[in-house]
Write a structure and sequence with these properties.
Number of helices: 3
Shape: globular
Oligomer: single chain
Structural class: alpha+beta
Strand content: 5-15%
CATH topology of the domain at 9-62: Arc Repressor Mutant, subunit A
CATH class of the domain at 9-62: Mainly Alpha
């Protein structure tokens, strides 16, 4: 028999597991990644992975003590305004 070893969580989590860790849906975490509002991630062998420390740090950035406390900095998973270069303005047409 093998001795009981302490269970050590994996150092990196895939999107689904990271979302469960944060109590989010995988799609919400994907949106955060796309919009640049989510936790830091890495690509290892083409796969997106998250370090547990990065997930905890991102969640801690949103910690507040009151609903009126403006310190929480976790942004919603939505697109933010982008700056359009004048060279690529609305005058450009698609054929």
């Amino acid at each position: 028999m093998r001795p009981d070893l302490p269970i050590i969580p994996p150092r990196y989590l895939r999107t689904k597991e990271a979302a469960e860790f944060l109590s989010l849906s995988a799609r919400t975490l994907e949106k955060h990644r796309t919009y640049g509002t989510g936790p830091a991630f890495r690509k290892l062998g083409g796969r997106v992975v998250y370090a547990i420390d990065d997930l905890e740090a991102w969640a801690d950035r949103g910690a507040v003590t009151s609903t009126s406390d403006p310190r929480g900095s976790v942004l919603p998973a939505k697109r933010h305004a982008t700056i359009v270069s004048p060279a690529y303005g609305a005058a450009r047409r698609h054929r």
